[in-house]
């Protein structure tokens, strides 16, 4: 399990889209926070950029 910003990564899925910065594949992650909220984040593991999906 991976912990980012006090959230635990529950699920990861590799996407076919590529990062605009480094051209590596993007990963869709679902994070669970202490407030019991789930947040979806698209991130690049190579250059550590991320965007939260509403």
TrEMBL record:
What domain of life is recorded for the organism? Archaea
The entry's protein name is Uncharacterized protein
